[in-house]
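Mods, move this if it's the wrong board.
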Amino acid sequence: MQKKNAVSRKTDSELMRNIMGRYTNNPGMDYEKIVKSEVIAYMRGKINGDDALKCAVALGKRHFAIHTLFTYLKNYTVKG
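Not the wrong board. Structure tokens:
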């Protein structure tokens, strides 16, 4: 019980609860992969991926866009 309380708080958002729940249920899984997949799953229910990418870039969150929204970023790259 103490370990569960160490990774969650009553004030956590739905997204944070999902991330931490998945992390505690899959302790060997890479945390960064868990975060990316949970963020994308959460966003799909809230906003179109292309719009999320545009917003991230407009807000100067290019690192987030490249690492988390790469699937959508590929649609905007120059094809040879």
